[in-house]
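Q: A reviewer asked whether we had any structural model of the full assembly, not just the individual parts. We don't, so I'm hoping you can provide one. Inputs are below.
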Amino acid sequence: MNKSKKCSISIGPIHPALKEPIQIEVLVEGERVKDASFSLGHVHRGIEWMGLRRNPIQIIYLAERVCGICNISHPLAFCIAVENAANIRVPERAEYLRTIYAELERIHSHLLFLGVAAHELGFDSILHYIWLIREKVLDVIEYLTGNRITKAVLMIGGVRRDISKKQIPKIKEMLAYYKKAYEKLCEILLDDPTIKLRTRDIGVLSKEEALKLCAVGPTARASGVKKDTRQDFPYAAYADLDVEAITPDVLLGEIRGDVFDRIIVRLLEIKQSLELIEKCIKELPEGPTLYEPVLQKLLVDLKKVDNEGIALVEAPRGELIHYLRMQNSETLFAWKIRAPTYANMHTIVPMLKDSELADVPIIVASIDPCLSCANRAVLADKEAIIAQEKIHELCVKKTLKIKERLKRWEHV
Amino acid sequence: MFNILHVAAHSIFIITLALLLSLLFNGLERKLIARMQARIGPPIIQPFLDIKKLFIKENIVPANSIKWLFNAMPLVALASALLLFLYMPFAGMPPLLQAHGDLILVLYLFIIPPLALAIGAFASASPYASIGAQREIVLMMSYEFVLSVVVIAFAWLLSFSHAGAYAFSFDTLTAYPIWNLVDGIGKLGVALLLVSALAVFPAKVAKLPADISEAKTEIAEGVLVEYSGRNLALLLMAQAVQALAFASLIVALFFPWNISAFLALPSIFALIADFIFFLVKTFAIMFASLILVSAATARLKVDQAARIYIYYVFLLALFGLAFIGLDRLLVM
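A: Here is a predicted structure for the entire assembly that you could use as a starting point for your response.
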């Protein structure tokens, strides 16, 4: 074989390693990656555009469906943005409850990531073990909110469901369970030689690169950037809780910015979340949970707002921004989401350079990409960008076509 | 004439039995790994169902491929894997074609299925498959060293202790179990050889941590990526058969005893007892070096795996050889 022959391999949009629609093109020479690029936009649902045709309370439902995993972070960011625009003061108890829900979500999301990372390494035993212990937090979420995933607990000006005194023991039991599980996880992830072989010094992102590419969340923290929205711009009850950005040197004593560090940061954040929940339960103040229980009245109030709102939320993957503009109308004038993956995606290019082909999946997975959040426009040809209206039109056409076909089948 | 017919009928029987057993072991392996991962796992007959379904499915041949090569290689892989059982002691019986082949032939036959798989992958013209095939070849070159050291050690020892016997024939190996020929430090040497042979097992049958040529999450099943339908069924069978064959090779080399030798049993019961004992032995080998290992490791990269085989496992085997040599020196 000609040794200098370079060959382009595309990973995704459909690939067993990455279940999400992203295309990564790597230029390989043998097994070594010489260059890498990625393209987004393989799924686009026009959520922001749909949102502009609904009133703010209906949008909460939509915001929850931006991403299946961050289904607290998105509506939370949206609610905070509306509250900022309309100068709504959220009751203190509701702020604490929001914090609890958000931290529960972080635990489940990080456990999900650890399992996925193990799967990318081919270590399916750990995948199954971690996802087994992840069931516990999902059970507790279901117990508190009535649903495992889309929880529908947030409302503009508070939360829709209170946590009663009777429910506290179950949460405490979960905390105890995870404290034990955390020890076990540490043992598995820190001591296993094959995991170290596959993740140490792989996909290194230097602190300078992380700052230059505006990385957010655990990806930035693993490279030593002490950056956490909960610490820098506290929202909900975080200002009371003394959150500190976690970097891997807490546990390992050094920062290398590799895949292993990104795994360890998430592991440490699980522990941090457990402590935050514990604190929240202890300091949970009494009082109402909603600013305005009568939703009709709330809507009328919101109609009078002429202001813009912006919210920063630390989603499990990093800083999430919702911007919106309200202009004396039932619907919003503008709504823009900047998901954390959108900021993090660019970091994979320096990480992938000079890695090996076998490392590509774990490197890409190590930023925990969530593309349902990040996709903003769809590219049909290389040039033509299809805008939301066009997508809507195409969707209607397709639905009609399917209806037509179904009718024909019915006759048969 | 009668003899040829007899041999043909016997070999068909052996091949069918080997095929069924290897698929059954494959099912057991999947079930056990699932239980270790706290899953329920597929039913034990799942490999049979898979193969049955694959035979019904469409056989897609990529447009850019070299079609005859692409289609021929699965057959070659399965045929050579099955042929192995005619030259190796199987189910407690001596090899059927003992007079026509020996340990060297068996080792060469073992090389054919991975090689056929790699050639078929190259012929498919898929970049994923080509990378998988390159990995397969690199891995093969690294572990074959180890096996040759093991075989050389056996032949060397036998040529010392039983100068008249043909050292490479399975008859000799069965007649003089290696553990009886050495003592003390030599036994340690044989144990090291056993460990290194077991370490080769996962790479030989593309299981974790050495399923590098397939690597589902990296190159989408690599060498198998373009295979479907009948061809895929043949390749999966070839892999299962190879696993059983390698386990029986280790049994034949290191644990050649038959249980009937220790119990006074009528001949028919002796046959059954030997068969069951053989199953237990091969499954124990598979359990130790495939099931436990693949449930407890991550996938290695090809350079890491090659380094481990060329440096560590090879060194282990060499030490085994050296200990055996030392043992001979002490005896003399």
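A: Points you may want to mention in the reply: The CA atoms of residues 3 and 193 of chain B lie 39 Å apart. Chain B has a mean pLDDT of 83.
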